[in-house]
């Protein structure tokens, strides 16, 4: 069932991992998709190729979400290519696992610029460019509720995104626009696997009630639901998608 027929979605950080799967799931549900990438054009082009090979419509757009003008460009291209924007998925982000003591000014600034500023710029632009009845879905992390050492600076950015999303829900509700958060648990992505040793990965796996790490494809159906009319009475909420990890 193509719940998102004739809708247009922007997915930031859409070239790899969870973002790539979200792009393909939204397209499979009927949406036209703007696949945002920061630097990996080949990966973004591959996502577009898979979508188009399955009969969908997509375009890859380079943009650094830490730059306000680049976020504006995403909306401009979406409207020029597909006529409108109905759905924004704030997925782009960077990770950082260090104690608060060991985190440098530059590392913390980078986390804030990409994770928080990027989501803020997207929400601000969505406030004036999204169609009535539109959807804003922001990706947080279940780690924000797990009180893990070395996760503090990263989780601080996710907490900020969640509060922005809740405020946006109140601000745009009169237009029928919803704003929700999806909070994955530990997920088999390049970012997670490449930034943790095997011992830590195994420990995270065992924390899940369902006994495994998440997969990018576990997130897609939830995001499609939140992007569809079926979720019209849900807004300002955090939806954990973590297999019972937290």
From TrEMBL:
InterPro entries: KR_dom, NAD(P)-bd_dom_sf, Sc_DH/Rdtase_CS, SDR_fam. The keyword Oxidoreductase applies. Keywords: Oxidoreductase. Residues 7-187 form the Ketoreductase domain. Belongs to the short-chain dehydrogenases/reductases (SDR) family. CDD domains: THN_reductase-like_SDR_c. Coiled coil: none annotated. This is 3-ketoacyl-ACP reductase. GO terms for molecular function: oxidoreductase activity, acting on CH-OH group of donors.
């Amino acid at each position: 069932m193509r719940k998102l027929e004739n809708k247009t979605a922007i997915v930031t950080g859409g070239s790899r991992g969870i973002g790539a799967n979200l792009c393909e799931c939204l397209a499979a549900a009927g949406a036209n998709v703007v696949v945002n990438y920061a630097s990996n054009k080949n990966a973004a082009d591959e996502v577009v190729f898979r979508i188009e090979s399955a009969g969908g419509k997509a375009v890859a757009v380079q943009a650094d979400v830490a730059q306000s003008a680049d976020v504006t460009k995403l909306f401009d291209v979406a409207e020029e290519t597909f006529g409108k924007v109905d759905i924004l998925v704030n997925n782009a982000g960077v990770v950082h696992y260090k104690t608060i003591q060991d985190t440098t000014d530059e590392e913390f600034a980078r986390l804030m610029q990409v994770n928080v500023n990027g989501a803020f710029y997207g929400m601000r632009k969505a406030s004036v460019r999204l169609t009535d009845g539109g959807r804003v879905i922001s990706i947080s992390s279940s780690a924000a509720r797990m009180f893990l050492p070395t996760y503090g600076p990263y989780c601080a950015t996710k907490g900020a995104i969640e509060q922005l999303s809740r405020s946006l829900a109140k601000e745009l509700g009169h237009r029928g626009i919803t704003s929700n958060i999806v909070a994955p648990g530990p997920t088999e992505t390049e970012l997670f696997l490449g930034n943790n040793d095997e011992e830590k990965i195994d420990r995270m796996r065992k924390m899940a009630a369902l006994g495994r790490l998440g997969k990018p494809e576990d997130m897609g159906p939830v995001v499609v639901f939140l992007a569809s009319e079926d979720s019209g009475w849900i807004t300002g909420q955090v939806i954990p998608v973590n297999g019972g990890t937290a």
